Amino acid sequence: MGPRGSSVLLPAALLLLLVLLGLLQVGPRGSQERPSPAGPLQQPSPSLRRQQQQQQHHQVTYIRSSRLRGHQGTACCRLQGAPANNGGSSSSSSRSRKAVRWHIDLQPWASSTPSLSNEALRLLKYISTAQISCNHMNVKEHAGIPDNPARPWSVCLDDRFNLVHQIKKKQCRLYSLGLGSDDNQFEISMANSGCEVHRFDPSIQSAHVREGQHLWYHRLSIDWRDPNPMIAAHKLRINTKKLGTILNDFGHHKIDVLKADMESAEWKILENLILEDIVERIGQLVFEIHVHWPGFEVSGNDSTVVRYWYSLLKELELKNFRLFHTYRDLLKPQVFLKSEAFNASSCYTLSWVNTRWK
Length: 358
Description:
alpha/beta; eight-stranded mixed β-sheet; 16% strand
């Protein structure tokens, strides 16, 4: 090869060498994966995975005893918002498909011309007459002992109803709603029989207190509405919730007995239980009702108020509840809507059994 050919090949060889050097610098850099803005993908550690799994589950509510009581606390309630047991998931789905009710259906007037007298006599006759017999109750009648201060919180223990069998199997559950009452003999008696008893009372000191093996106290007040979410919890005077909300929080699908002594809040609470179909999840109702005034947030003239009361009780009848025990408290003022009329007491204790309860 002559000098001229060598001079031509030398620049070409230098050019080729430069191109190869450039490829070596660009190639590895271009072949690398760019890290994502969040950083390289890494597998979480076992401890982190367990923490994430726990956060995905519902919170567990633990009820622990007060130091003053001296009992060791144990968990009384299932997971908050857990699926309902005993076929509860299918029942919940069927309830969600029902049309939402915003008010109860009022019964026709007792007479062609609305009057307090006719409405009152109809109501008083209704709450004084048992609709079904019960041969075995948990309390003795107080007839002949008018000065006995004990109130007959009566439940029916006939074999044809489910409560007595639940008690024998130690699987019964009782909710007691109150407002500062010291009368807890009924709750203690049911707890001693093996029932799981939850008493809701805003006057107790601790949030949750366990007493004995089967009795719990909760600093909660049952209301016909949940608190306004726009109001901070620490600004609320007392912690109030609807009964349906508490059932979901505690993971309880059914209540064998619901006892209520709510000092005139019982009418609106009962209305809420009916409208939200909570009564269908209750085996027996034991309510103290008050008729000396309309009650909280019950409005209208006197005849309208009594018609509303009567309509609520008829709604229970439509839900297969039957009145089996009625008690007229002679120790309370004999007043009906602020008047001494109709030979009525201001307070009655009524017990119903759900005849379709399973």
